[in-house]
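Prompt: May I have another protein with tokenized structure?
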Amino acid sequence: MRKISPEERQIMRRSYAEKIMETVRTEGFISLTIQDLAHLMGISRASLYNFFASKEDLIQEVIEIYIDYLTRSNQFINNPRYPYIRRLPAVFEQAVFSTVYASEIYLNELKSECPEYYKRQIQVADERLLILHRFYKNGISDGDFNPLNPSLVIQQDEAALHKILNSSFLFDNDLSLEDCMYSYYEMMKHRSFSHNTLKPGKDPHIEKAVRVIINQLGKNTNIASRTLN
């Protein structure tokens, strides 16, 4: 067998860990056995141990995926070199994934079983909220955004996306995930940008963000079965 480089090994670890994220968020991870995890990843128990030293090692890789994503997206949203029209789709994408993957059962088990990782994840999540407040406040100061209360704006998005993505809302209203994501972002855009800076029409930056969302959540059988034809 060809020897795998450290870089390739890490890529494969990350790829395998991504395959269990949906189950971890919906069912937690405490009750999952090594055999359960190997089955979810589509590999044998022996192959699992080629990449992960233990169940804890695998769960920590899952946690790192979420922390890495939040860290990268926080940095982009907080970067004033990019115009608001480029950063608002990233705010939307981040809100979607934060709603889907930071589930109550996952966070409760993380707090119980991996307190240090829980503390890290909460710190990055808290930083996200601070960056979002700054993003909206700066947008208002620069004259790009309408003068709306950032705290209410953030809470509105979190509550709405939680309802849309963690219930039968899409199925009950005969909506596809893709159409709903585009429609919700249009509401965000019209709510956020002032009349003078609002650009009508679908922009390429939200198209990229929605593709990422569809590609990721399309792997989620619970959401996919209700929304994707």
